Amino acid sequence: MDLEVQQLEGGIERVKLAGRLDSAGVQEIDHRLSALTAARSFILVDLSQVPFLASVGIRTLLTNARVLRQRGGKMALLNPQSLVEEVLKVTGIESIIPVFHDLEAASAALKAPA
Amino acid sequence: MNDPSAGRIAPHPAIEVGLAQVFDQCLPDSGGQVASYIPELATVDPDKFGVALATVDGGLWSCGDSDLEFTIQSVSKALSYCLALELLGREEVFRHVGVEPSGDAFNAIVFDPGTQRPFNPMVNAGAITVSALIYRAMKGEALEFLLDRFSRAAGRTLRISESVYRSEAETGHRNRAIGHLLLNVGAAEPPIEPALDLYFRQCSILVTASDLARMGATLANIGENPFTGESVFAVGAVRDALSVMFTCGMYDSSGSWALDVGIPAKSGVGGGVLGVVNRQLGIGTYSPRLDEKGNSVRGLKVFRKLADEFGLHAFECTNYGSELMRSLV
After folding, report:
1. Cβ of A91 and B308 within 8 Å?
2. Mean pLDDT in consecutive groups of 10 residues from the start of chain A, 114 residues
3. Fewest CB within 10 angstroms: B8, B121, B276, B325, which?
4. Is the bond leading into B191 cis (omega within 30 degrees of zero)?
5. Is A58's CB within 8 Å of B18's CB?
6. How distant, in Å, are the alpha carbons of B129, B245, B264 from that of B196?
7. Who contacts B92 (Cβ-Cβ below 8 Å, separation ≥6)?
8. In this predicted model, what pLDDT tens digit does every residue of B245-275 receive, in sequence order?
């Protein structure tokens, strides 16, 4: 699994993941994602290149989202594929980590006061 | 990977890929030893490995040696418990065997000191008690009754391995001792020999990993086989059996199993493991190398990985508790 970081305006980090976010995928990105959430405040996880999100992957996203929130930051998810979006919806995760299909809307939500 | 359309459901790439990856990750593990305390079990090929997953809407996915027969052994305990509950009712069954984890080995000769009854039906003492109850209810038709229900749960006609049965019957001195101690404490009633014979025979029933998956799907589907539509187990008995499988099904590894995997399951020293995800899935694995507690090494690994892959654990952050409550709030 690949992880690519792009700095957007307003101190937002766009974290682009590519590959299955399963046990093996989590092992490959866990440290880098944790380091980012420890150091930054606003993380936009781009899921457009993630074909499958395993429960261990969801747990990783939730853990990092909570770390961010405790530090006054936020996480949002961008452009999930239809299968992944369905998983996020059915499991109720989208009510905890908001999902967007529009970069501007996602950026605005991340910067909006809590 | 076998034909994913073996059931009625369209192929599903996420399940196929996930299952194949888990299978490939577990295949190289050659840890553990084949059971040897029943001589005939020591003759199996230790490298065989099969995994199958069946859904309650009739889908079946499988990898490896999923259609290779092996003896069901202690996996049978979960199913026979279900049948005893149906035949005799909860109160009568609970009067003879408890529902508490023992923390002892599967073949331990130990009873609950407070009740003088076996701790639970998933260890040998409890399972022999259950066999005695079924024999009491069905007499000479008990074996036919068990075989018929097991077959309906698997969706095909099952048979007994005569060689394993003979091996079990000839060398099962410890189980015979347990049977006589059950008579001594009043947990079982005489004659005990036919009950022991029923127990040895039920353990020698031949199944495949795919059978275990379909049996699991039958339990997951509230007792109705999703492939045949046949009603196999009583609704209340399924709930009770799954509960005891959850707390006691993996011998003295049941605590760590609940922590890591978090679904009801039952293992057998033949190398099989049957797991149930309530209202969704049955999972069957076969790999005969066992850990020191009698559980299949690769089977355990498969379940841990599938739980992480598909969010099977009852307390996974992606799972809701009561769907009924969810509809209310």
Report:
1. no
2. 95 96 95 95 97 95 95 96 95 95 96 82
3. B325
4. yes
5. no
6. 9, 22, 26
7. B133
8. 999 999 888 899 999 999 999 999 999 999 9
Q: Helices (DSSP H) in A4-96: which residue ranges? A: 23-39, 55-70, 82-90
**CA–CA gap between residue B249 and residue B260 (Å, rounded):** 14
Residue with tokens 């196999």: B232
Q: How far apart are CA B129 and CA B139, in angstroms?
A: 14
User: Which ipTM value was assigned to this complex?
Assistant: 0.85
Facing residue for A23 by CB, picked from B17, B305, B313: B305
Predicted confidence (pLDDT) per residue in B179-193, tens digit: 999 999 999 999 999
Task: Using only the alpha carbons of chain A, give its radius of gyration.
Answer: 13
- HSE-CB of B287 using CA atoms within 13 angstroms: 29
Integer Cα distance of B191 and A84 in angstroms: 59
3.40.50.10490, 3.30.750.24, 3.40.50.300, 3.40.50.720: which CATH number matches A2-102? Answer: 3.30.750.24
What part of B 283-322 touches A (C-beta under 8 Å)? 305, 307-313, 316-320
CB-based contact B308 A22, cutoff 8 Å = yes
Q: Which domains does chain B have, with CATH numbers?
A: 13-73+205-328 (3.40.710.10), 76-203 (3.40.710.10)
- Give catalytic status of residue B77 as yes or no: yes
User: Which B residues, 19 through 48, put their C-beta within 8 Å of a C-beta on chain A?
Assistant: 21, 25
The Cα diameter of chain B in Å comes to 59
* Token digits of residue B29: 């593990």
Between CA B199 and CA B197 the distance in angstroms is 5
Annotated catalytic, B74?
yes
